[in-house]
Write a structure and sequence with these properties.
Blueprint lengths: L1 H19 L14 H35 L15 H28 L13 E8 L2 E6 L4 E4 L1 E5 L4 E7 L4 E5 L3 E6 L5 E5 L5 E7 L11 E7 L1 H14 L5 H8 L7 E3 L31
Parallel strand pairs: 1-5, 4-10
Antiparallel strand pairs: 1-2, 2-3, 3-11, 5-8, 6-7, 6-9, 9-10
Helix pairs in contact: 2-3
């Protein structure tokens, strides 16, 4: 009995450590910094509560059975084999109820996250095209006509629609503090809505293993106030060099690079993704739409 209790405690501790282990490097899925992340956080908490109730119920029944029948030792005991209708109905209905309690909020959240966060419906969304490559992230701003590598600046408290694509290997776009992850695929239209409540530096990364440079598939999301973001855009336009097609092709080759900023985007091979039709929103690797990993 003591061994079982110690094993259960160790398992619970391991679960809590795994959930909070992403706190390092600003990857804390349990500290949401935006409406999308909060929606997913509430779903995680609700799922955890239901699982805890199931585990607690199993342990209570287990202890009751041990206490009630543990001291009995009747070799002539012959249990009835007719079954127990009440028990059979109970252990059939309870899992159905649990599945329903999990399914309803999950489906609701899935469809809600296909649209801009309700907290910012009055604000004009901003679109950023994301391209994953081996082993870097490239961000294009269609409205501002600028391009960055391995970091992306966004206005805080404003919905951002990330249009996702990949050059080469499939990957997964993930900013734990702002929301769940979504696939990036070659020749596939994907999207993800995110929003930061406050200015800050949020770490993002690829969540799919893509070879020897996988550890370098990281980027920073720099959330700025509207005025600071506009100043940053003007600074980029006035100081950063334009990007040529040759330079863009070099960046797309397998390899690692540092942060880069360009005051233009290449004219070729960079057609906008039309998300108005055929859009397949990114599904989370962990079983939840845009969920946490």
């Amino acid at each position: 009995m003591k061994k079982l209790g110690l094993k259960s405690f160790a398992a619970l501790t391991l679960l809590l450590v795994s959930l909070t282990g992403c706190a390092a490097d600003n990857q804390n899925v349990l500290d949401p910094q935006g409406p999308v992340a909060r929606t997913q956080f509430h779903l995680i908490v609700w799922s955890f509560i239901l699982m805890a109730l199931v585990v607690l119920g199993v342990f209570i029944i287990f202890i009751v059975v041990l206490v009630k029948n543990g001291k009995k030792n009747n070799p002539n005991y012959d249990p009835e084999d007719d079954g127990n209708v009440k028990l059979e109905v109970t252990w059939t209905v309870i899992p159905i109820i649990i599945v329903i309690l999990l399914a309803i909020p999950t489906v609701k959240s899935t469809y809600d996250l296909e649209k801009p966060p309700k907290t910012a419906e009055a604000k004009t969304p901003m679109t950023i095209v994301v391209t994953s490559a081996d082993w870097k992230w490239v961000f294009r701003y269609p409205e501002q006509n600028i391009e960055t590598v391995n970091y992306v600046a966004i206005p805080s408290d404003r919905p951002i629609k990330f249009q996702l694509q990949a050059k080469g290997a499939m990957n997964s776009f993930w900013v734990p503090s702002l929301g769940g992850q979504a696939y990036t695929m070659p020749n596939m239209k994907m999207s993800l809505w995110l929003q930061a409540d406050h200015p800050g530096d949020y770490l993002g990364r690829g969540a799919n293993f893509t070879g020897k440079g996988f550890a370098h598939m990281q980027f920073h999301v720099l959330a700025k106030s509207d005025s600071d973001f506009n100043k940053w855009v003007q600074h980029v336009k006035s100081t950063a060099p334009p990007i040529t097609q040759k330079k863009y092709d070099e960046i797309m080759k397998p390899g690692t690079v540092g942060r880069m900023t360009f005051s233009s985007t290449p004219k070729d091979d960079r057609a906008d993704i039309d998300m108005s039709s055929g859009d397949m929103s990114g599904m989370d690797m962990g079983g939840m739409h845009h969920g946490q990993h």
